[in-house]
Write a structure and sequence with these properties.
It is a single chain. The protein is an all-alpha fold. It has a domain at about 30-65. Helix content is about 45%, strand content about 0%. It has 2 helices and no strands. The chain has helices at about 30-40, 45-65. The radius of gyration is 22 Å and the shape is flat.
């Protein structure tokens, strides 16, 4: 008889699912500037670019605003 394989159930880590949408509008010059930047640096994933740029700015500002001990 073949031994049955025992499956060990390991709980999957909860994935950081993006389920919230933010929509914003740009004027013509802002859009043109972003499109030139994306083209120049060959950025294909615009969502990732916007998300990382915004989060980077927020984290930088939070770090600057945090109290210093000395």
């Amino acid at each position: 008889m073949c031994a049955k394989k025992r499956e060990i159930l390991i709980p999957k880590k909860e994935k950081m699912v993006r389920k919230h949408k933010i929509i914003f509008t740009l004027n013509d010059k802002e859009l043109e500037a972003i499109q030139k930047y994306l083209s120049k640096y060959r950025i294909k994933n615009k969502s990732r670019f916007y998300r990382e740029t915004i989060i980077r700015h927020i984290l930088k500002q939070m770090e600057e605003d945090s109290p210093e001990l000395f």
